[in-house]
What does this fold into?
Amino acid sequence: MLLTVGQDNAIASRLGAALADVESRFAAELISDLTCVNSLVAHVEQYRGKMLRPMLVLVPGFAVMSHDRDAASSSESLPVAHHVIATVVEMVHMATLVHDDVLDDADTRRRGRTVNAMTGNEAAVMLGDYLISHAYHLCCSLGAPAVSRFIADTTNTVCEGELLQLANRKNWELDEGTYFEMIRRKTAALTGACCRLGVTLHDMNADGTTIDDGEPLADALQDYGEKLGVAFQIVDDLLDLIGDQDTVGKSLGRDIAKGKLTLPLIRYLQSAAATEREVMLTRIESVRDDADPTVDASVTTIREHLCDSDAIDYAKQWAQKLVDQAKGSLSLLPESPAKDLLVEMADAVVSRKR
Amino acid sequence: MLLTVGQDNAIASRLGAALADVESRFAAELISDLTCVNSLVAHVEQYRGKMLRPMLVLVPGFAVMSHDRDAASSSESLPVAHHVIATVVEMVHMATLVHDDVLDDADTRRRGRTVNAMTGNEAAVMLGDYLISHAYHLCCSLGAPAVSRFIADTTNTVCEGELLQLANRKNWELDEGTYFEMIRRKTAALTGACCRLGVTLHDMNADGTTIDDGEPLADALQDYGEKLGVAFQIVDDLLDLIGDQDTVGKSLGRDIAKGKLTLPLIRYLQSAAATEREVMLTRIESVRDDADPTVDASVTTIREHLCDSDAIDYAKQWAQKLVDQAKGSLSLLPESPAKDLLVEMADAVVSRKR
It folds into this structure.
């Protein structure tokens, strides 16, 4: 997510410094005395992409600083807790990527080979476990049980979303409501939690407790993060369907091969005439689990049919609507370069090509 | 682990009540509003076996109560923290079982089908993640960051052990030192942590901090748990090799099929004459990853050769030696029915047939 951040280079440079610190903390947390562990971790660090989730902790953190304090504070650093939690959410996200690639039999991620393709599913399962264990370990270093419990509560929800999605593979009757519930849990729960923590970590007491009894600003920012997360997942699903694999840099077309219904297909199946629907279902069912979607003729035809219908535009409109709602949730924040950045990040979710 | 507990039915009944409470907490923690999640969890609860790890929190807990207080306290319940942590370690263990079965392509566990065999590796990966996430979630409910961090530190080590084992699959040069290091991490780190917490949770302050600066009793009990854990794993590896599948109730012979070297094979390869060693290596390398070890002729021959050598006895002697050392670590504890039970549990590790 390459952001231009308008005129304000100060916020870009503060964010850049904070993200660099997150990268250092990430590497430091994962160091092992075992070479075999370190080389797997080094590989996974190449997965690092947009760092969206750390940004969703840090930028709301900056925005609330502008809110609480006078203008002079705009050069201040965030409390260390923001940096720690930004690292934790990146580690949680990386763990889900590693396990997702096992679930999807994906072989390419960020233009490199996935851990499962390179060293087998076994190492990928265990490496994901190593990442998630270290995420909790790092989180506990804050000495803030309520924060740790909130993170664990969030990962509970993420797992539920993934299990709901698995339970609905090849369920051609899947309705929009269940699809949204699924991605709310598997993707938006974490992005929402990031933004909430960006606010509430400012109020952490010395004993690790936080004042977070549903304060309006925390609720509003969590809402921003959740809406943005849902929109992000819709666009991710669209890219899997109609993106350019070289641009996106990861295995695409996996959703159809794996029987994962996403918004365009749900829309198509629910609005197509009965005969078209039957033809589409027959075609989808003919795609083998291990098909290569980049060359598979059925996958190509399915894509063409979706593009010829209103299904793609329908999903894009949903993403745009959610992004607009997300930006609306920022109304409680006073104007600041950090707030502008949150708006820009929301817009980038719908315009992104990778 | 069916224990007779000598003459003292009081300790057996206190332990039974505590374990029943652990089962309730386990089920309560994992309840979801999603039916698909609850049915997977219900399946995994059938994996419940010996409950060794909860016992390793609870029984040292009882033993320290007898130590600290007068005889009247022998009917007292343990602090709730012991019950919570006993549930946490059972959940961590269950998560490792679910992911281990993915790693081992195992299809039978506790006489039932494994999650991976029943619903595919994908659901098993995600269900394991759900269990581990809830384990940390429950752990954080104690409001004791140092305890949570110690648990996470332990799971870091467990994952390292698994990764070390994976990195050494089909490494026919594997030495005893690396084997012991591997099982110390993947198995004994958790059993040691259980016993340490059984002691230190008695000293938890109201703010969740514990007094644990390497007190001799905590060190001694951790040592007991680690020795017992290493012995347990050696016996587990022996059962995989020479156990009776109907008695053990899970897929056996996986270690040879998966190229996992265990103590008897390491011993054989290091002590056999050069020609015997070559014959054995050729035979092992001929076993396919997906071989059915119960009928595979090469696996049968490998077993016969190991049984004809001193390799099996050598491993059994190691297990016995470690159990004796574990019992020796109990010397700081005064005599009590709980201490007798710890001795009995150690003996049961070497005598068990499943």
